[in-house]
């Protein structure tokens, strides 16, 4: 499976293969929702539907409201998105896919979309769910507990104090098995700068590989059979009993954002679902990348104002060395390397001997870092 960073592919797509801006849905074979065609919230609601389901007391299960988002700071023709605007409420919205995305046991499934948290997150989910046999009635009556079970869940999830991950759950109907990623990369929702982030999932069923990218950078690539990364659960559903387990071929024809958040201000943009890594990369390079560059320019301008006209360093010289990590991470990494393959008895012995020395060594170097660092170094999370 190829792994090409966004910036590198941007030059490849634009100059080598002659692909020009702007792209449009006619040259993308997969599903792509850029939200640019909607002029009003009423237009949006003609295609995107929220659940009207209620509980036993007649209260809506998903009372949060959604609206069309427009950011004038973004580049022209790529300024709109989907915004959840009701804090502290369950939110659900979804749509049908007119041209379903086929999925077989020898194909790729690629999901990609942008997420922007306009405020500092406290407990925010921003993941997408994919379905087969999802109709309009299924959307308007959607109930996560009693409704249709999703086939795949993917995306960032952040909740203080201990949840910060990119989630992945795959309901493999061929093997009657649910795979849940338990060793996950961090979400980046809490970047402190309210940046747009691009989340890409590549599920290679032929080679049984999962790849996850954030902002075009590969943050996880692992085998679906890796027991350290996945928790597997067998299941049996009455709706699946008619399927021939020797064949696996169905279509994704519906998607939802089904989340709960303490804040309003989560924005979704440029949703792609298809079978092509190249299409996802082209979309990312022509939509996410220009806005990311513009966001960085705006951040630099704000820092320049705060620093009396002096533009700070865009990157601290400590970002790429051991000093940029926290002590717990350094200690954990070193201990894992030392303890691998040892018996429990030997592990305890090594820990008792080495931990005091390591703590002293790390604390001393941490103090040196603070002495060397100068006040005019400003770190920017790229």
Task: Describe the structure in your own words.
The protein has helices at 6-16, 41-47, 136-140, 277-306, 327-339, 344-372, and strands at 31-33, 66-70, 80-84, 89-104, 108-117, 123-125, 128-131, 152-159, 163-172, 177-181, 196-204, 209-214, 217-223, 230-234, 249-261, 266-274. It is an alpha+beta fold. The protein folds into two domains: 29-235 and 251-297, Jelly Rolls (Sandwich); 341-380. Strand 12 and strand 13 (217-223) form a beta hairpin. The radius of gyration is 23 Å and the shape is globular. InterPro entries: Calret/calnex, ConA-like_dom_sf. Its main location: endoplasmic reticulum.
- Assign the CATH architecture of the largest domain: Sandwich
Unreliable spans are: 1-21, 240-246, 311-330, 368-382
Count of beta strands = 16
User: How much is the radius of gyration in Å?
Assistant: 23 Å
Structural class assignment: alpha+beta
The outline comes out as globular
Question: What is this structure's SSE topology?
Answer:
Blueprint: H1 6-16, E1 31-33, H2 41-47, E2 66-70, E3 80-84, E4 89-104, E5 108-117, E6 123-125, E7 128-131, H3 136-140, E8 152-159, E9 163-172, E10 177-181, E11 196-204, E12 209-214, E13 217-223, E14 230-234, E15 249-261, E16 266-274, H4 277-306, H5 327-339, H6 344-372
Antiparallel strand pairs: 1-16, 2-3, 3-16, 4-15, 5-11, 5-16, 6-8, 7-8, 7-15, 8-9, 9-10, 10-14, 11-12, 12-13
Summary, kept brief:
The chain is α+β, with helices and mostly antiparallel strands and 382 residues long.
Key traits:
single chain, alpha+beta, Jelly Rolls, 2 domains, 8-stranded antiparallel sheet, globular, disordered N terminus, membrane, ConA-like_dom_sf
């Amino acid at each position: 499976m190829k792994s090409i960073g966004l910036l590198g592919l941007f030059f490849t797509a634009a100059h080598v293969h002659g692909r020009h801006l702007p792209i449009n849905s006619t040259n993308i074979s997969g599903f792509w929702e850029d939200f640019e065609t909607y002029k009003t919230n009423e237009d949006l609601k003609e295609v995107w539907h929220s659940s009207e389901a209620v509980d036993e007391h007649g209260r809506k299960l998903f009372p949060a409201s959604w609206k069309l988002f427009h950011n004038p700071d973004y580049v022209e023709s790529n300024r709109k998105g989907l915004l959840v605007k009701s804090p502290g409420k369950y939110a659900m919205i979804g749509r049908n896919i007119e041209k379903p995305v086929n999925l077989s046991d020898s194909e790729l499934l690629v999901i990609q979309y942008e997420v922007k948290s306009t405020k500092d997150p406290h407990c925010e989910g921003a993941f997408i769910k994919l379905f087969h046999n999802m109709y309009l009635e299924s959307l308007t009556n959607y109930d996560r507990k009693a409704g249709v079970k999703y086939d795949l869940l993917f995306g960032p999830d952040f909740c203080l104090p201990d949840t910060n991950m990119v989630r992945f759950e795959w309901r493999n109907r061929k093997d009657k098995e649910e795979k849940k990623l338990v060793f996950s990369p961090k979400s980046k929702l809490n970047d402190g700068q309210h940046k747009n982030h691009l989340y890409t999932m590549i599920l290679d069923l032929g080679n049984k590989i999962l790849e996850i990218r954030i902002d075009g950078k590969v943050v996880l690539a692992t085998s679906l059979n890796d027991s350290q990364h996945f928790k597997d659960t067998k299941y049996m559903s009455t709706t699946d009993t008619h399927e021939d387990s020797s064949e696996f071929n169905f279509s994704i024809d519906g998607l939802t954002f089904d989340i709960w958040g303490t804040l309003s201000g989560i924005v979704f943009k440029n949703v792609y679902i298809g079978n092509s890594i190249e299409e996802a990369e082209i979309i990312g390079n022509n939509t996410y990348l220009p806005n990311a560059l513009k966001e960085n320019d705006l951040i630099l301008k704000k820092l320049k104002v705060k620093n009396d006209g002096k533009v700070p360093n865009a990157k601290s010289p400590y970002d790429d060395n051991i000093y940029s990590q926290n002590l717990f991470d350094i200690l954990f990494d070193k201990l894992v390397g030392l303890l691998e393959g040892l018996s429990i008895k030997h592990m305890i012995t090594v820990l008792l001997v080495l931990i005091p020395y390591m703590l002293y060594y790390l604390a001393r170097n941490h103090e040196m870092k603070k002495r060397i660092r100068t006040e005019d170094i400003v770190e920017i999370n790229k």
